[in-house]
Specification:
The protein is mainly α. It is built from three helices and no strands. The protein has helices spanning about 10-35, 45-60, 80-90.
């Protein structure tokens, strides 16, 4: 006779361990990156900078990178809008992270 099927118990301890190791690795990489760049956060792609420029443009009353020139330089309409509060608060450089 076969035993009844039971659902496996969730492995929260293992999940928590893996997540903790992953987060620790991310923090170490961020710390080393900041240490090697003199405490300044930099991005290897230009997309975060474009999104930040569009967010700054929104704060200045336009939508685009160049003042007075309305354009859509980014592929996302929503992301620059989500960055606006961070740019206004002075946290723009950290917000895309």
């Amino acid at each position: 006779m076969l035993a009844p099927l039971t659902s496996p118990k969730p492995r929260w301890r293992e999940f928590g361990s893996v997540l903790s190791i992953w987060l620790l690795g991310c923090l170490v990489l961020l710390w080393r990156s900041l240490a090697l760049n003199g405490g300044k956060l930099t991005y290897c792609l230009d997309d975060p900078y474009i999104h930040l420029a569009v967010a700054q443009g929104i704060l200045d009353g336009t939508y685009g990178v160049n003042p007075g020139e309305v354009s859509s330089p980014s592929s996302s309409l929503l992301w620059p809008l989500l960055l606006v509060p961070f740019v206004a608060a002075g946290w723009g450089e950290v917000a895309p992270l």
